[in-house]
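Table S2 (text version). Query chain:
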Amino acid sequence: MSSGGRVGRDSPYTARGCDMIWYTTKEVCEILGRFSQIMLVGDSMLRHIIGSLNILIREDLGYGAVTDWNFSEGEKRDCFCINQFNVKTCSVQGIYKTSDVLANAPESLSCPSLVPGWSTDLRIEQINRFPIPTDELTRLRVGIQSATTSKPRAFILGHGLWNDLETEASIHWLDSVLSVINHDSDFQAPTLLVTPNAAGKDKPDKWLVTQGNKALSRFEETMAEAATKVGIDHLGTWNMSIQATLYDGVHLDMRGNLLKAMMVVNWLSMLES
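Corresponding structure-token output:
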């Protein structure tokens, strides 16, 4: 899925040498339901992935990524559909835990009705930079311990931009997060490292050297090798995003993030039960 490309700007993305499936809502729920916990750890790009996963499992393109149950009329107007991602004040109101949906708008979550007994803990812990503050590592540890262990866990990680794509810092970040994830286990939990997408034409000029497309493509290659060394999987998103709309030159719009989310679901579907 990391390879492939688009034939023209915003054309459909085709993976190279594999059949990437666009699953139905029920199939997404069934795949997520194999796990007691699916935790995303990273920055705003990971926040957009979990937002898109929530769109899929809530079957709601309008407000599926955000906490619409406590929105004012103005927020409902301003944060509809693609603005869930493109407007920063809307994006930061994303859903961080499935338990929040169950507590505030349970009828909006499709999975319990489609898959009886569905109880996956889908959540994100935002840990942006290295060195990682102690309280953020503690929060990560508590979040992991909060889930039941009746089924496997899976982790999706993402890092880079907050440390200006410095690979040494990102490798230390990765090692620190993995040490918490695997602290009480004798084996490596299924883990996917997602590296940042390409830069767009609207990326601020001050970032073009440290976070431009040359730096991003080199970072993706280096972190793919680092992931292999520590025994985890890697998903590169540079190819899928170089001809996609990036509304601020950094982040993908809803279409691109839904594709990222479905890539993650495809990875989850390939894991052994």
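Notes on Table S2: The chain has one domain: 5-60+111-270. The domain at 5-60+111-270 is CATH 3.40.50.1110 (Rossmann fold).
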